[in-house]
Amino acid sequence: MSAAPTSLPGTVVDEETLRRLIPPYRVILHNDDHNSMDHVILTLLRCVPALAPEDAEQIMWTAHTHGQATVIECPKETAEHYRNCLESAGLTATIEPA
């Protein structure tokens, strides 16, 4: 005998419940002295498709002036993918629970 479904198809889950079920993580970009600003912006746009060019530029400036910047909040597996992509292009990035 199979268990009854816990929700109906098309059911909307509120944001608080979703955050408990799939905790968000922050992808953090750290400033460095060896990558050009253009390289950082282009890498952000390539690795994190949800970013607009203006967002990528602001993230780069925040990291440059404050030492680090939040790139995006997303599920852990996605955050790990973004971090790995940024690091493979020579940038320094970490993830942390949001």
Strand content: 15-25%
Mean pLDDT: 92
Query: How many DSSP H or I helices?
Result: 4
* Fourth-level CATH superfamily: Ribosomal protein L7/L12, C-terminal domain/Adaptor protein ClpS
Briefly note the CATH topology name: Ribosomal Protein L30, Chain: A
Q: Unreliable runs, pLDDT <50, ≥5 residues? A: none
For the terminal residues, how far apart are their CA atoms? 40 Å
CATH architecture label: 2-Layer Sandwich
What is the ordering of alpha helices and beta strands?
HEHHEHE
| Helical content class | 40-55%
Tell me about the largest β-sheet: 3 strands, antiparallel
Structural class computed from helices and strand pairing: alpha+beta
Radius of gyration: 17 Å
CATH class, anyone?
A: Alpha Beta
Number of strands: 3
Number of structurally distinct domains: 1
Which strand order does the major sheet show? 2-1-3
Q: In one word, what is the shape?
A: elongated
Describe the fold and architecture.
This protein has four helices and three strands. A three-stranded antiparallel β-sheet has the order 2-1-3. With 98 residues, it is an alpha+beta fold. The protein has a single domain (18-97), classed as 2-Layer Sandwich (Ribosomal Protein L30, Chain: A). It starts with 14 loop residues before the first helix and ends with a strand. Helix 2 packs across helix 3 (53-66).
